[in-house]
């Protein structure tokens, strides 16, 4: 009887040698993945963003302290002026696309209505012409308008009511008066920085991110003028411009506070950073509280977002640090004008203490 194989059943013949298991995939699965990084080591985690902002802040603080020590070693005289951006040091590639120093693209604005025209002239808003309807009924407001316009040398043009309707817009209630306001001529952010530095001053500016209410812009301009600021930066798109309403809210501060327009706010902020400016964003979930901020002696740009949306993602990533303003639990947030005012006041107070 023939010998049977030791193992019953068919035996598959193969030229391959003996196998050692399932191969690399199974082995990797058994070994498992590496340990999950800590939250602060993940750059896109909120804790990681806070850590990066803290590192930038500490590096800036160390640089400021090192500059003070070097100045103290060079001269026994009192501490020199705080570090600031140099007007002549222009690093290669630091230029961002600038908003040309040109007039606004839209047409001239027309202020209509007796009360609005009176208030605009009282606020000394620039105007190129005053239109008055023929056979208008003269009251105290009309008389004051004529007196203010002639006193400032503004041309007074008497027109028929159909023509005044066309000038003011057929949906506007002009009450026989219309004031033509020319487009505002915006400054350039880099030129504004250079002029401030050339005067021996430490720049302090406010940049707006998504602010569409002209009253907020006017209030911020007024606060910048009140607390020793040097200008305001507004984006060219999705932002309010310096309209007659904003000018009126500024209570005349717009006449002495320059407003710069940025074609790209993020790139403009990056260009300012390369020139030594410290960019501070305001947000409720900030990296630090406002009372913890101590770098007031540096050139600073405070970036304010809208009350609803806050700062945009790209602007947030561009900021050197994000600062929050402590408020009561019963209040959800502050509007842009108030937040900017509180921050400017705090920076002004710190700078005054540094000068003592």
TrEMBL record:
Domain RNA 2-O ribose methyltransferase substrate binding: start-end pairs: 110-187
InterPro entries: Alpha/beta_knot_MTases, Ribosomal_eL30-like_sf, rRNA_MeTrfase_TrmH, SpoU_MeTrfase, SpoU_subst-bd, tRNA_m1G_MTases_N
Pfam family, one: SpoU_sub_bind
Keyword Methyltransferase included in the entry's annotation: yes
Region (Disordered): 1-113
Keywords for this protein: Methyltransferase, Transferase
CDD domains linked: SpoU-like_RlmB (cd18103)
Keyword Transferase in annotation: yes
Entry GO CC: cytosol
Compositional bias of kind Low complexity: 77-96
Swiss-Prot/TrEMBL GO biological process terms: methylation; RNA processing
GO MF annotation list: RNA binding; RNA methyltransferase activity
Taxonomy, superkingdom: Bacteria
Entry similarity comment: Belongs to the class IV-like SAM-binding methyltransferase superfamily. RNA methyltransferase TrmH family.
Protein name listed in UniProt: Putative TrmH family tRNA/rRNA methyltransferase
């Amino acid at each position: 009887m023939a010998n049977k194989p030791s193992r019953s059943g068919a035996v598959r013949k193969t030229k391959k040698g003996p196998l050692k298991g399932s191969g690399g995939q199974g082995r990797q699965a058994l070994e498992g993945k590496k340990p999950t990084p800590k939250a602060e080591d993940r750059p896109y985690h909120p804790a990681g963003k806070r850590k990066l902002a803290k590192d930038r802040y500490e590096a800036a603080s160390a640089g400021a302290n090192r500059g003070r020590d070097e100045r103290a070693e060079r001269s026994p005289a009192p501490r020199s002026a705080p570090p600031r951006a140099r007007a002549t040091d222009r690093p290669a590639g630091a230029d961002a696309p600038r908003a040309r120093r040109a007039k606004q693209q839209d047409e001239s604005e027309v202020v209509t209505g007796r009360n609005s025209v009176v208030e605009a002239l009282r606020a000394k808003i620039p105007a190129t012409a005053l239109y008055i309807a023929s056979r208008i009924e003269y009251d105290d407001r009309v008389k004051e308008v004529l007196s203010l316009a002639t006193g400032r040398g503004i041309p007074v043009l008497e027109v028929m009511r159909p023509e005044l309707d066309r000038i003011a817009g057929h949906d506007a209630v002009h009450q026989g008066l219309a004031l033509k306001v020319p487009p505002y001529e915006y400054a350039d952010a880099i030129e504004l920085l250079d002029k401030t530095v050339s005067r021996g001053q430490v720049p302090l500016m406010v940049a707006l991110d998504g602010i569409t209410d002209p009253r907020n812009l006017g209030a911020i301009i007024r606060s910048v003028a009140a607390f020793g600021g040097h200008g305001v930066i507004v984006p060219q798109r999705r932002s309010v411009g310096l309209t007659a309403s904003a000018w009126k809210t500024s209570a005349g501060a717009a006449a002495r506070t320059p407003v710069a327009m940025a074609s790209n706010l993020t790139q403009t902020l990056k260009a300012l950073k390369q020139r030594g400016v410290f960019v501070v964003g305001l947000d409720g979930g900030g990296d630090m509280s406002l009372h913890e901020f101590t770098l007031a002696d540096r050139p600073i740009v405070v970036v304010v977002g809208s009350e609803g949306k806050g700062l945009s993602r790209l602007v947030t990533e561009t900021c050197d640090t994000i600062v929050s303003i402590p408020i009561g639990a019963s209040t959800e947030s502050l509007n842009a004008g108030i937040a900017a005012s509180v921050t400017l006041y705090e920076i002004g107070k710190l700078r005054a203490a540094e000068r003592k």
